[in-house]
Amino acid sequence: MNTRFLNTRFLQDPLQLVGRSALDTTAQIGRWGGLITATLKALPKVDIWGRLLVGQLARIGVDSIPIALFIATFTGVVMALQASYTFTGAVPLYFVGALVGKTMILELGPVLTGLALAGRVGANIAAELGTMRVTEQIDALETLAYDPVAYLVVPRILAGLVMFPVVVVLATTTGIAAGWLTSLQLLDLSTPAFMKGLRLFFQPWDVQFALIKSVSFGLTVTSVGCFFGFTTQGGAEGVGLSATRAVVVSSMVILALDAFWAATLL
Amino acid sequence: MSIVLKDVYKSFGPNPVLRGLSLEVRDGETLAVVGQSGSGKSVALKHMVGLLKPDRGEVWVDGVNLAHLDQEGLYEVRRKVGYVFQFAALFDSLTVEENVGLGLRRLRGMTEEAIRKRVAECLRLVDLDGYQDRLPSQLSGGQRKRAGLARAIATNPRYLLYDEPTTGLDPVTTTVIDRLIVRMREELGVTSVLITHDMGSAYRVADRIGMLFEGSLRFIGTPEEIRACPDPVVRGFIEGKPELLEGAG
Ligand SMILES: Nc1ncnc2c1ncn2[C@@H]1O[C@H](COP(=O)(O)OP(=O)(O)OP(=O)(O)O)[C@@H](O)[C@H]1O
Ligand SMILES: [Mg+2]
């Protein structure tokens, strides 16, 4: 640990420090935008990324289903139990169905899945591409006349855009099902009563809203992962740093986007 | 129509690496580039395929200035160049066969069968036939290096850039690779740049030898000329006497 560096940081003008990190962040966002532009430009190169898409759909989507369903199941159970605890006496019990359904679809399904995949998929992409960067595999692609953006970034981002909504739909459904089973088993609630609650405030728009969110989270996690992977410097330490940054930054962006969509679309 | 560097400068942050490097690789020759570790040999080689861009100066490959090319133009030039990375840079999620075949897939009109045959042929040239299904992690360092070499020659490029292809190989394998480099020139007329630490290799395979020192070319000439060169920096390097390099500059 370089203690000299740590010490001088405290002595620096805090405003200057804030200013510098704001500038750094702006520069990073600019470079991320550059990657997105390059991705759009590389889209027509189907001959390069076409063969790789299926593999990424499996890795980013299918392999993420277990963790997403695991989280959704427990969330559904806890929501049903807490709703019934909260409603005791004051509100009819079938409102449990309304609460579980509405919050799973609008918020917890997309956001918890998004955060879980930020950890699983984002870190994975950043570490893999970061390793390829520091071992010159990305340079090797260049010398073989493969556009690395077309070869590595396009299939991952496309897979994220396609598979995040799929995983979110599965997770949300599982969460609601878990809430329903909990209501049947542990609460004094019948299936028709749960369904009545579920339908009470439901609007088809809710589903579209959740899908829009999921697509934006898919873009965030995969593009941020690719960005930190591509810009990795140094050896193993640099790769670790990129993976951490990918998770932290994409989680923060997911939460900010979540608020943004709620403010603009609801 | 060859590879020319004109007065190239390149720094990484405050650290200048190339300081006015000018170099012409003649058509059909094998030019060996020697120089101390960290003198910028790999950096110079990366400029020749546009992996690094000069801060100042020009890089010409096959008659075109790389700075004037768009991305597609650059890929067009790169198709004519094979690059052997110092640390192999094999794709570690692909098998040896897929690694070597990747460049071939970029050439339109090759059947799977033709690709497989060409890959086997290249692997035989580097003495790795039968390793098609291995992953890079299942190869030794020297085997990886040779697989990287096979990948670079697979598309029959007109130019070959070798970054220390024999460093770390045993004497027998080194001779096999040296002969391969000579064969590429004699049979296919390939123009090559060969970075090496091994003066023996350089004498055996190179038409000319250039020495990098402090960011530019200190000497360039035939093996006979470099042997007879009185410059203490050159003498110090080829005889392995750091004390001769010290006060010089
Ligand atoms: N991407 C990079 N970022 C920062 N510095 C770099 C980078 N690449 C090379 N350098 C620096 O440039 C200098 C020359 O590096 P280079 O790899 O060209 O050396 P070399 O002559 O190939 O040495 P060796 O014989 O050990 O391979 C070194 O000081 C190195 O630290
Ligand atoms: Mg080197």
Structure described in brief:
The complex is a heterodimer of chains A (about 270) and B (about 250). With about 270 residues, chain A is mostly helical.
What is the residue-mean pLDDT of chain A, rounded to a whole number?
93
> Major beta sheet of chain B, specifics?
6 strands, mixed
The span between the termini of chain A is 48 Å
Beta content of chain B comes to 15-25%
Oligomer: heterodimer
| Beta strand count of chain A | 0
List how many beta strands of chain B DSSP finds.
10
Element-level helix/strand string of chain B: EEEHEEHEHHHEHEHEEHHH
Residues in helices of chain A, as a percent range: over 70%
Shape category of chain A: elongated
**Strand fraction band of chain A?**
under 5%
Q: Largest interface, counted with CB-CB under 8 A? A: A-B, 14 and 23 residues
The average pLDDT of chain B is 94
Number of helices of chain B: 10
Low-pLDDT residue intervals, each spanning 5 or more residues of chain B = none
List the helices and strands and how they pair.
The complex is a heterodimer of chains A (266) and B (249).
Chain A: H1 3-11, H2 14-42, H3 46-61, H4 65-87, H5 95-134, H6 137-143, H7 148-186, H8 191-200, H9 204-230, H10 236-265
Chain B: E1 3-12, E2 15-25, E3 30-35, H1 41-47, E4 56-61, E5 64-65, H2 71-78, E6 81-84, H3 96-106, H4 112-125, H5 141-153, E7 159-163, H6 171-188, E8 191-195, H7 199-205, E9 208-213, E10 216-221, H8 223-227, H9 232-238, H10 242-246
Helix pairs in contact in B: 3-4, 3-5, 4-5
The structure holds adenosine-5'-triphosphate and magnesium ion (MG).
Residues 41-42, 86, 163 of chain B line the site of magnesium ion.
